[in-house]
Amino acid sequence: MTQWAPPPLGSAPLCFLTLLLLLSADSAVSRHPEPYYGRLIGRLTQYAHGIRGTVYAVDESTIFVRGFAYDGTGPDAYFWVGDTPQPSPEGTLVPYPEDYSSRDPPVLSAHTNSDILLRLPAGKRLRDIKWISVWCRRFTVNFGDVFVGPGLEPPRARVLPEFKRLAHGLRSGNISVLDAKTFYIPNLHYDGAGPDAYFWVGNGTEPNPFGTKVPNEMGSLNPLRGYQGEDIEIQLPGRLTAYDIDWLAVWCVEYRHNFGHVFLPKDLDVPPALGQTKITPAWWYNPTSSTTSQTPYSNTNNCMEVLDKRLQVRWEVQGEQLQVRLAARLRPEHYMAFGLSGADGRPAMLGADVVVAYWDTKTNQPRVADYSISHLAQCDGERGVCPDQRLGGSNDVVLVSGEQKDGITTITYRRPLGAVEPTRDRAILTSRPQSAVAAFGPLNSRREANAHSFMDTTRADVQIDFGAQNEHSCLGLAPAAAGAPAPWPPRIIAGRTRMSARIGPAGGLRGYTPITDNDLDNGYLPGHPSWGIAWYIDDLLIPEIYVERGQTYTFLVEGGDDRTNPAKFHPFYISDSSEGGFGQKREEDQRKQRVFAGVAYDNEGYPYPTAVGRYCEWTHKTVDQWASAATFEEYMATLQLECNEGEAAVLNWTVAHETPDLVYYQCYTHNNLGWKIHVVDPGAPIPMPGGRGADLNAANHIAPHAVPLALLAIMAANMATNMAANMAANMAAR
To answer: Which Pfam families does this entry report, sorted A to Z (predicted)?
Structure first.
């Protein structure tokens, strides 16, 4: 058992590192002044009864009165509109409130500083009226009015083009911006096969990872289902408006793929979103935060299990602090996160205030940190899923204790009930339940949290009453998940000087990630995260390639040449980075990579990929069959090769004598598609563990032995011949 407790007073302070990749979004600087209520008509002129208010044209049939005041003592007063030169009995009554239940419209009641939305009745438009009045019908008296200018042009809905068709069968009719928050998408088609796809908005010349999730037509932030010609309406979350964004897309968050998008014009002039478009569930808006109870008391024995009973949360109010204990069967190099949802009534990572906890395997100590989520992307030091301290704020979480026992990691921390930093923190209430969020996920190379999967986060509203006493629903953590299926043995290519490079599926839990595990014999050590596709070299899934120094090798690259479609643009290059993705890295990160082939620089010193050829992909004949394919050969029989027109790119690489012993073939535009290239001296024998060789399929590892490169060439050729024969036999059998 491993235990940890805080050091005694006077000892060196601990540096609490932490992590998480959840999601959120701050709006950019709006192109419209805020707050925006529509086109100004004017102020109500007061004649009697304390009439006051500023009137705006929301759209051609809707009026907004800001800060309306009226003493309510008129016996038969209503909002009244007409087209006569002055307010008169020949006007038309505008009922308020609109949804009255009585037979006749209600008489206008008293108001002191109300915001009122009026809809013109009977098909009238602003162009049909000349004035707006508060009018007493019984005594034909005008209490106050404002005149509509003859040249007034109210904001109107804007029609945009359809979604650009890039992937997964996405298409639609012309999309309309109904108001500053609402989009109407007619005839929407999408195959639903994206693993982590959402409606996505953001800024820039094209869709990118630094965007914001938009709830679907049901107000849900679950990954998108398939659509077959449906007409839907969606609404931007929080304070985000159409004036804050440059594009709307369908985007796969986990794999950073754009399935299709539409751009918003810079001269957008649509109605403000004041509730006139009635599709917004009330719970999409955050209620005004209440004051945290100041009553000091202690609650004991509170416990709840979340995330399918995989995370146990215990809590106790201690004066002005909340003490929380998290317990889970946490994998090595993984975190657990818990905190307040960014919205009341649903699990929202955007705007959430969470604590991330994990066991630091390097120091053998628990770690906790205070995180805020200002954008649904990895922290860049200014926004994203960030530790408060990294943004210049304070870490308001204190580590209390931690232990690892019987496969369960338990970490206890304490945080204030109140919001120490109102822009980053959310207050813990003791007067009513609040929505909470939780997640598991892996740590990245910076020992910050990577994105979690859909199944490892709260998918339904979890309400926790932090002020409750003896609320205990824990039955015990769920047992450890069953072991993953046996991975396919890694393959080796050696002795070949000419190879093809194509794209294919990653092979689920038998393929890319377990193959890239650093040590399959040493329990669970996470391999590289996969985003669904990988390189197939000579039609083998990420084989390890052996090359000799001084020899020239040719790669026929078919990773795609359409730069406008990132989902099918995968230039091939060779680097010392096990992650790849040179083109998406910042300049300072690019300098950390050594590139050996596939990247050149233009006259201004900017890099560009050189191995850009037509697109060829091994695709599924039906659905992904990795779970039922015990061997890679069986899996290949379920795939079919699809190629675009064009030619393969030719990449020639002469291995320099100073090339390190280990380099990697990778994708220029995306992380984690490739794997290892072993560089050896001419004539050197190659150590190969049995069962991981080019044509060795035995699952058991045996003692390493040395095989000359020339012999490996024969072995590889035999393997290719056997594999082709097996595939031909399978095809004939079908």
So the answer is: At5g54830, DM13, DOMON
CA gap 536, 636 in Å, rounded: 11
CA–CA dist 660, 183 (Å, integer): 53
Chain position carrying tokens 């986060």: 457
Q: What is the pLDDT of residue 280?
A: 37
Question: Which residue's structure tokens are 């594009």?
Answer: 247
- Please give the pLDDT value at position 705: 35
Would you state the structure tokens that stand for residue 459, as one six-digit string? 């998918």
Which residue has 């204190």 as its token pair?
Answer: 398
Place of tokens 């995968």: 570
Q: Is the Cβ–Cβ distance between 545 and 499 less than 8 Å?
A: yes
For the beta carbon of residue 397, count every other beta carbon within 10 angstroms: 24
Helices (H), 317-457: none
Q: Quote the CA–CA distance of 668 and 582 in Å, as a whole number.
A: 5
pLDDT, residue 521, reads 38
Q: Which of 165, 222, 172 is nearest to 195 (CA)?
A: 222
Q: How far apart are CA 500 and CA 555, in angstroms?
A: 6
Q: For residues 61 and 533, what is the distance between their CA atoms, to the nearest angstrom?
A: 51
Residue given tokens 């398939």 in the structure block: 226
How far is the C-alpha of 459 from the C-alpha of 229, rounded, in Å?
26
540 φ, ψ to 5°? -115, 140
Nearest CA-CA partner of 550 in 480, 654, 425: 654
Residue 71: count of CB within 10 angstroms of its CB? 14
| Per-residue model confidence as pLDDT tens digits over 386-420 | 888 888 888 889 988 888 888 899 999 999 998 88
With CA atoms as reference, report the closest residue to 554 among 654, 664, 674, 673. 654
Token code pair at residue 692: 């991981």
Task: Please provide the DSSP assignment of 397-424 as one string.
Answer: -EEEEEEEETTEEEEEEEEESS-SSTTT
pLDDT tens for each residue of 447-494: 776 666 666 788 889 999 888 777 777 777 766 655 667 889 989 999
Q: Which segments in the chain show pLDDT lower than 70?
A: 1-34, 122, 278-301, 376-381, 444-446, 449-455, 478-484, 518-527, 530-531, 623, 687-734
Per the DSSP assignment, residues forming a β-bridge with 100 are: none
- Among the listed residues 315, 308, 355, 314, the one whose alpha carbon sits nearest the alpha carbon of residue 335: 355
Q: Could you give the 3-state DSSP secondary structure of residue 51? A: coil
What is the C-alpha separation between 200 and 215, in angstroms, rounded? 9
